[in-house]
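Quick entry between incubations.
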Amino acid sequence: MSAGQLTAASSTSAGSFPAVGEAARAAQSLVKETVLNANDSSEVFARAHAARDALGFPAGSKSAGRHVHDGLQNTDYDEVTEVDAVGQTITVAQFDAAGHLLAALRFDSPSGSAPAVTGDAAALSAQRGLAALGVTVRGQARLDVNPAAGGWDVHWDRAQDGFAVRGDETRVHVWPDGRIQSVARVEHPLTAAPTRSLGQAEAQQAVIRQVDKWFAGKDSGYMVGGLDLEWVGPNAAFDSSKVGTAEAPYRLAWVANIKPSGAASSYVRLITLFVDAGDGTVIGGDIVE
Amino acid sequence: MKRAKTLLVSVLLAVSALGATAQGAFALTGDVWSNSDSFSSRCLGFTDTYPQQLYTLATGQMALLGYKPIVGALGPSFTRSAFLSDVFYDYAVYAHTHGDNYWAASGWPNVDSAILQDPGPSRCSNFSLDAIRSSAIKAATLGTPYNLVIMSTCSLGSSSSTMPDAFQIQKTKTSTQRKFYLGYSTETYDSSALRFERAFWSYLNGASNHVRTVSQAFTYAVSIGGYAVPDSANPFQPNWWGNPTYNGTPG
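Done. Structure below.
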């Protein structure tokens, strides 16, 4: 370990049985950080300060920088935090290796006295903040109420070649008073689109074949809901041999929503299946338990 | 804490009666439960890998906060009786399973939130057989306080959830006691729960000496975005109640 390298979590605890102890030991080594010096990494600090000012975040009494290897989130990033006079972190800004903003957020709370902004006003505030950051968004924003912190979550979902990129977005949380609390950009690498794509009817047949196989002999039925082309991340949802493998670039896939009926509907709300648009194989999916 | 006082009386009685040592009497137990049999090949035709992934994550990370021992179970040992007999002794509780805000036995409009135990190796889940009601949990806790409660399920972070009260956690974000409840408000994809919980634990345990607060970890994890949603009626909406300055450690 180099002089500047810190291992994050310091407490140790073997669990009551081996598997837990193994998990604890594994977790211990998963988040590591290397201190970034303001002189040697001046561009990182400059980006962070520019983001802070663009978003109207408070300035701390000092800034601290670090490079983080985050094995839990399977990512590496540079992070600059602003710390107040008593050492509390008040803002965080994270950037990828290319210097692109991943997330910027503030930890303080809005005053409760201001009247709550409308969704339209929140979207406008978000757009202004992104413009000040130099972040371009296209299309109509999607608005959700934020029940935990109040205000609005304003999303611009990413699309490529006319198809949604599942989960990828530019997200801004706007406080009830109209100020921005956080900005995040999520953008996964994509593979090339397949030269020949399965048609919707072929994809539907592939989905039915797979789900019929799964549900054969079960006391449950199902209905296929939407079937749309999206860019998706291949994952280990249905294949334990893929758990822990590196995240692969996103692929174009038919995404089918399967609504169980009968017995399974009392414990599984939705099964989502990703069928590769090129070769028709199941490359992952998702579940709402 | 009330639990410690109650335990102290029990332990002193036990020590005097049996001549045993009191070592372990003040264990800072964290229980991690995950239902896997409902989501197995036997019940669904495929094995859902998320219960194992979320269980492994929670056990390791809860230990890093100082909870010890970490008990509970993945799979068939996650029973209603095990949950209810353990819960009094817990300082932290994590559950990943099917959860919802069901009508109370008294009927509409009263809610009695519940989670489902693991159904075991010979059948699949059935609400009437497997529900662990919040009212039953509350009764089993005997009013004792809890530090960290995470319901990694659908719906139990919503305003109608009665699960926080089962653990004596009021639905306020200004508590001054060492308590924090986390749940999801809507129907939530497992992939989104895993992404959120990885970010949450990573931030919370990502600095030495537990200098970060649980509410900061929550704020960080929500703020990074990138959460897939099942439909527009179910945006990704985790929620919390408790103390905004609490760091998540036991005691």
